[in-house]
Amino acid sequence: xxxxADIVVIGGGCIGVSVAxxxxxxxxxxxxxxxxxxxxxxxxxxxxxxxxxxxxxxEINTRLSLLSIDAFERWGEEIQExxxxxxxxxxxxxxxxxxxxxxxxSFEMWNRLGMDAEWWEPAEVEKRLPYVNxxxxxxxxxxxxxxxxxxxxxxxxxxKAARRHDAVIENNVEVTGLKLDENGREVVGVKTNQGDxxxxxxxxxxxxxxxxxxxxxxxxxxxxxxxxxxxxxxKFEDIKDPFPMTVDLSTTLYFHxxxxxxxxxxxxxxxxxGYDDSFNEEFGEQMLMxxxxxxxxxxxxxxxxxWAGLYEVTPDHHPVMDKLGHIRGGYVCAGxxxxxxxxxxxxxxxxxxxxxxGRATSIDISALExxxxxxxxxxxxxxxxx
Length: 386
Ligand SMILES: Cc1cc2nc3c(=O)[nH]c(=O)nc-3n(C[C@H](O)[C@H](O)[C@H](O)COP(=O)(O)OP(=O)(O)OC[C@H]3O[C@@H](n4cnc5c(N)ncnc54)[C@H](O)[C@@H]3O)c2cc1C
What we know:
CATH class of the largest domain: Alpha Beta
Radius of gyration: 21 Å
Distance between the termini: 40 Å
Mean pLDDT: 98
Structural class: alpha+beta
Bound molecules: flavin-adenine dinucleotide
Strand content: 25-35%
Order of helices and strands: EHEEHHEEHEHEEHEEEEEHEEEEHEEEH
Number of strands: 20
Number of domains: 2
């Protein structure tokens, strides 16, 4: 392995490869990405549902999505690698007054940002989504540019494009420490299980493990690992394509087409922080029951695959895109709280701007600074968390 680089990116999930690509494309010098697993995207990225949506309740999340959706739409032209990407929309079912009020507020913000989202009254929901049990449904929102994409294509595409711009990607390399100057203030390298690498800049794209890695230099980045799980059914054609990613926010149930079957996800609100990513069978049963209640036709579907993975959750469900506290040359881009795949293009673009230009300009990301966690008034309140 090379023993020096200009910038070391730690972590080869969708965020790390996007950051490496955007840095390399902009001619940031020798960019080296280090991933401890055998393959890229084996952790949260490879276990995610692939959802890509702009329907958030905070403006910063919505802006991150819109910047990313622009990039996904011109993927082939820019990245020159295949991407399976289905813009079949996302539909949020609104089943109580509070949700209706909250989405009405969001709807105004979406209009202001130029999104042509649709508001569906119950009759329209029934017509457009005949598979939905309408109990309690007071309406729905739909945005046609939302949808889902293949996490593996996104990861491999960015990795290949990064290599074409001379970035180097090393697997099976675990970063075990950051090397600082004699004052303990400036990055001079990283320590790994394969030897040291000298560098003046390092970017932590370490997902659910970010608190541990940042802790190596005494900086607290409050990202917690929280287990989330997915079930994919066997081939299932009783719901006709194309149909949107359908979300029942009151239960957090969501489902969309996956490899001929249906991918079903739901969040266990009682889950506590930890690295356990084994599948919880009991909660899996609850997921299936909830899915069959909202879409009774799913009674005819047979579960085929199931898995769990880790969300990388911050206290306000927004990522950190910032310098690494007081450490000069240190940066962090993590804590996407279950939205990292959809925000990967924006994350790479904005981090390259922050690192190379001193400031992100495509979007103002001051709202994503690390310091917000020590000031409760700066915390965000994202209502549309699944
Ligand atoms: C069940 C589930 C469903 C999801 N659904 C969606 C969805 O629909 N849409 C969406 O946008 N997001 C979704 N997510 C969230 C999404 O997967 C994450 O936000 C995203 O993958 C985060 O990417 P990442 O690169 O930060 O993390 P990861 O993919 O976890 O990558 C971090 C990498 O850092 C490496 N690493 C850590 N420490 C070190 C070290 N010391 N040295 C070297 N390497 C290290 C890890 O091995 C890992 O590969 C879902 C997640 C789960 C679990």
